[in-house]
Design a protein that fits this description.
The longest helix has 127 residues. Helix 4 packs across helix 7 and helix 6 packs parallel to helix 7. By secondary structure, this protein is of the alpha+beta class. It has a 5-stranded antiparallel beta sheet with strand order 1-5-4-3-2. The structure holds zinc ion (ZN). The site of zinc ion (ZN) has 7 residues, from helix 3.
């Protein structure tokens, strides 16, 4: 989805979580934060005016392009969500970019998850870039003493030992950096586990789909066989019907013949009747003539 929002910032780095929250729906902002917390967001390429990012969402990998242009924030995501004015993936990309551009010290606060993401960068950042680090032998010794159990903890996946209480300075920042790295590693492992769980879910889903497909194929085959049997039955019945209709025609023809014969017989009977009548009349006449002859003798 593509979106365009009026934006007064002239650098993407100026968009802090508070500002990002103000341009997102509560749900999109919540999901965006969750994606960042679960380490599902990757900044592919970014500068002050454009971010290319990828987010592992709950239904796949989505790609985002976010850009500042002519006083507007233009965002584009490969997802199909209708979240306005910006989808959760773009929100996640902006939040991750903000985190990405913060000085390392502020990530300590983030690692502890106790403060909000819009905490101001810690001013101690200057100590890491100081050209003359103020390092004392005592701090280095404490650091080295902490380092060994810290490495063992990292190897075994357990919690880091409590760091020595050191004043702000180079050695303290080394410890902070190692702690940050360990937090990122945990986040990566968590994200990996999430991905593996998701892959297992997908595999199970695919298995179910493939089983359903096989059942459907078997059903389709059975249906095809039933259709073929039906077609054969229909052909047989059609043949029987054809023969029956021939028989009916024969019977109708014979019936007509019988009727005409009966008609002829009736005519002959009537002819015979009239002959009989004539014969009776003739006989009567003969009797009468005979009686008259006898009388005249
Ligand atoms: Zn999206």
């Amino acid at each position: 989805m593509r979106h365009k929002i009026a934006c007064s910032a002239d650098r993407l780095g100026l968009l802090d979580p508070h500002m990002i929250e103000s341009i997102a729906t509560p749900n999109a902002y919540h999901m965006g934060r969750q994606y960042v917390a679960e380490n599902r967001v990757r900044i592919v390429e970014a500068d002050d005016i454009q971010i290319s990012a990828a987010v592992i969402g709950h239904s796949g990998l989505y790609e985002q392009t976010i850009r500042l242009k002519d006083g507007h924030l233009l965002s584009k995501c490969s997802c199909t969500l209708s979240e306005e004015p910006m989808c959760r993936h773009c929100i996640a990309a902006l939040l991750e970019y903000h985190r990405w551009t913060q000085p390392r010290q502020s990530q300590k606060a983030k690692a502890s998850r106790s403060s909000s993401e819009d905490a101001a960068p810690a001013p101690a950042s200057s100590s890491t870039s100081s050209p003359v680090p103020n390092v004392t032998l005592s701090e280095v010794l404490q650091f080295v003493a902490w380092l060994e159990p810290a490495f063992k903890a990292i190897e075994s996946g357990s919690d880091l030992p409590s760091p020595p209480q050191l004043p702000p300075g180079a050695v303290a920042s080394w410890i902070t950096n190692i702690t940050n790295l360990e937090v990122r590693q945990r986040e990566n492992q968590q994200a990996l586990q999430n991905l593996q769980a998701e892959m297992r879910d997908r595999d199970a889903y695919l298995d179910r789909l493939s089983q359903q497909l096989q059942v459907s194929i078997a059903e389709a085959k059975a249906a095809q066989l039933a259709i073929q049997t039906l077609q054969r039955d229909v052909a047989r019945y059609q043949e029987i019907l054809g023969r029956a209709s021939g028989l009916i025609k024969d019977i109708i023809g014979q019936e007509a013949q019988i009727r005409s014969t009966a008609h002829e017989l009736l005519e002959k009977t009537s002819h015979l009747d009239s002959l009989t009548t004539s014969f009776h009349e003739l006989t009567d006449l003969l009797h009468l003539s005979l009686n008259q002859a006898n009388a005249s003798k």
